[in-house]
């Protein structure tokens, strides 16, 4: 049942915008320790994209996020891809094959995704430097890309 919910991908609106982001720590795929959200937010805003390699909408969103990052070239925003439920060794190969340039961190049990009030991938979240959620979107829809780009440019 949980897998069905996670991969259903129905976009929802959220009451989380404006609220403080939960304190999450996630293992870095590259083996270089842990990503601590609170530490990173001290210096710059962050975009988190929760994804699964088995979900087409996630893969499409990852491609779009890479293009957005290249197009904006704003060094004031850090981008992270947050993988849920997948094995580290498989994911290393998957990421290498697709030449991801955005760092990948692991949410092995989907706990961080739940902390952000979601059970759907992809889920895209932007957190401002003050630690408040400023953008939140579940699922994938081409029309949301323009809103995300405008939001990131305003950071």
Protein architecture, described:
This protein is α/β, with parallel strands linked by helices and 155 residues long. It has helices spanning 2-8, 37-41, 56-72, 88-98, 111-115, 142-153, and strands at residues 25-28, 34-36, 46-51, 78-84, 104-107, 123-127, 133-138. A seven-stranded mixed β-sheet has the order 2-1-5-4-3-6-7. The relative contact order is 0.26. Residues 1-13 have low confidence and may be disordered.
Question: Order of strands across the widest beta sheet?
Answer: 2-1-5-4-3-6-7
Helix content: 25-40%
Q: What order do the SSEs take from the amino end to the carboxyl end, as H and E?
A: HEEHEHEHEHEEH
- The radius of gyration is 14 Å
Residue share in β-strands: 15-25%
The CA-CA distance between the termini, in Å, is 38 Å
Write down the overall geometry: globular
Helix and strand layout, with pairings?
Blueprint: H1 2-8, E1 25-28, E2 34-36, H2 37-41, E3 46-51, H3 56-72, E4 78-84, H4 88-98, E5 104-107, H5 111-115, E6 123-127, E7 133-138, H6 142-153
Parallel strand pairs: 3-4, 4-5
Antiparallel strand pairs: 1-2, 1-5, 3-6, 6-7
């Amino acid at each position: 049942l949980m897998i069905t919910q996670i991969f259903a991908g129905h976009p929802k609106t959220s009451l989380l915008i404006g609220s403080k982001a939960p304190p999450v720590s996630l293992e870095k795929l590259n083996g270089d320790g842990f990503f601590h959200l609170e530490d990173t937010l001290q210096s710059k805003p962050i975009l988190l994209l929760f994804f699964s390699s088995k979900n087409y909408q996630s893969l499409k969103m990852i491609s779009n996020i890479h293009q957005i990052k290249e197009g904006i070239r704003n060094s004031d925003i850090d981008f992270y891809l947050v993988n849920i439920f997948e094995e580290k060794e498989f994911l290393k190969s998957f990421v290498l094959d697709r030449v991801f340039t955005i760092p990948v961190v692991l949410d092995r049990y989907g706990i961080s995704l739940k902390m952000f009030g979601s059970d759907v991938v992809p889920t895209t979240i932007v957190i401002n430097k003050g630690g408040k959620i400023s953008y939140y979107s579940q699922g994938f829809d081409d029309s949301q890309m323009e809103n995300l780009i405008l939001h990131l440019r305003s950071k």
